[in-house]
Amino acid sequence: MPYPKGHSAAVKKNIIDSARKLFNRYGFDDVSIQQIMASAGLTHGGFYSYFHSKSDLYAEVLGCFFTDPDWKNCWEGVHVDLSAGDVGPQVVRAYLSRQHFEDVENSCPMVALPTDVARSGKSARSAFETVFKAMVSVLERSLPRRGGDGRATAQGIASLCIGGMIVARTLVDPGLANDLRAACMDVAIRMGGWRRNAAQWKNGKAPQPKRLRAAS
């Protein structure tokens, strides 16, 4: 009996979702193909019908985030409309949100996997670059007109969001991690010239970042 239309695409997406969660949680090197397929409810042998290698799958995991129209549903309570004119501040708030911070398995792969990418081959690094460029483009198109520095500003905001979340997850003190996320969010919003939209922030109030505490 033939499979229904769309079966192959659904299975492939299931494998990618399984791999993303496991890679985000344990890293690329510590996750096997067998574990990925078992988590997806599939047998090991079916893997090669969809991917040439684990590295091939890795590149797709990296490339499916900002290019996936359903990514806005990854973090419960976070809404981002990629077609909205004010998508820039939405992305900043979502990226540095508590939900993204806590939901490791559904993290943006640019946060969870950068060191793995740096050690990987050209295909994985190219996939990372593609996602980063997509994030920059989303941010750039919602910047106020300001001459020719829009791309550089968007690159800076994207790097601040990604780097800020990486450092926040590395910290032991949860209070310091929260302060850091709030500070990065505040700086990124000001870099983008979006301060006037603060009234539209969650619950109608702009988050007030606490003063960073000096490490003891």
- Classify the helix fraction into a percent range: 55-70%
Structural class comes to mainly alpha
Number of helices: 10
Radius of gyration over alpha carbons?
Answer: 19 Å
Strand content: under 5%
- The average pLDDT is 83
* Spans of at least 5 consecutive residues with low confidence: 197-216
Question: Care to count the β-strands?
Answer: 0
Order of helices and strands: HHHHHHHHHH
Q: What is the terminal-to-terminal distance?
A: 66 Å
Main sheet makeup:
none
Oligomeric state of the chains present here: single chain
* Outline: globular
Describe the 3D structure.
- It is a single chain.
- This protein is an all-alpha fold.
- Helix content is 55%, strand content 0%.
- The protein has helices spanning 7-26, 33-39, 54-63, 87-95, 98-102, 109-112, 114-119, 122-140, 150-170, 174-191.
- The radius of gyration is 19 Å and the shape is globular.
- The N and C termini lie far apart (66 Å).
Properties at a glance:
single chain; 216 residues; 10 helices; 55% helix; 0% strand; disordered C terminus
Topology overview:
Elements: H1 7-26, H2 33-39, H3 54-63, H4 87-95, H5 98-102, H6 109-112, H7 114-119, H8 122-140, H9 150-170, H10 174-191
Helix pairs in contact: 1-2, 1-3, 3-8, 8-9, 9-10
Tell me briefly what this model is.
The chain is built from ten helices and no strands.
